[in-house]
Amino acid sequence: QRRGFVMMQRYGGSLISMGDPVGPPEVARALIWRFREEADHMGLRPVFYQVGEKYWQTYLDMGLTLVKLGEEAIVPLEGFTLEGRDRADLRQAWNRGKRGGLTFRMLQPEQVDAVLPRLSEVSEQWLEEKSGEEKGFSLGSF
């Protein structure tokens, strides 16, 4: 059939699906169960990461537990302001950053390639200073 797929990766003792299956609902539900069978066969825990509400009942029916891990930050830019009491902490952080040399620019998609090398340098410097590593599973990386 090949009418759907699951994006997955083995990590430690888990088989992790990045999001819900892709495909028509009847195919996606079957893929969820197939994914579970494959994880069981491999002796791994099935994990579905960053899923929507559409298939919650299917996940619950197979005995999985829904765990909220965070929120996706979506800021409606139209009408956004730093003014007012509710934005005092954000305004103070912005002013501190400006005093420290922070700047902010919005780029058009065609401008991104030109600044990626510099952003990569900044990222590498930050990682060295923090003795850290890139956080790239669901956030992307350089």
UniProtKB/TrEMBL annotation:
<dbReference type="GO" id="GO:0016755">
    <property type="term" value="F:aminoacyltransferase activity"/>
</dbReference>
<keyword id="KW-0812">Transmembrane</keyword>
<dbReference type="InterPro" id="IPR051211">
    <property type="entry name" value="PG_lysyltransferase"/>
</dbReference>
<dbReference type="GO" id="GO:0005886">
    <property type="term" value="C:plasma membrane"/>
</dbReference>
<keyword id="KW-1003">Cell membrane</keyword>
<keyword id="KW-1133">Transmembrane helix</keyword>
<dbReference type="Pfam" id="PF09924">
    <property type="entry name" value="LPG_synthase_C"/>
</dbReference>
<feature type="domain" description="Phosphatidylglycerol lysyltransferase C-terminal">
    <location>
        <begin position="3"/>
        <end position="142"/>
    </location>
</feature>
<keyword id="KW-0472">Membrane</keyword>
<dbReference type="GO" id="GO:0055091">
    <property type="term" value="P:phospholipid homeostasis"/>
</dbReference>
<protein>
    <submittedName>
        <fullName>DUF2156 domain-containing protein</fullName>
    </submittedName>
</protein>
<dbReference type="InterPro" id="IPR024320">
    <property type="entry name" value="LPG_synthase_C"/>
</dbReference>
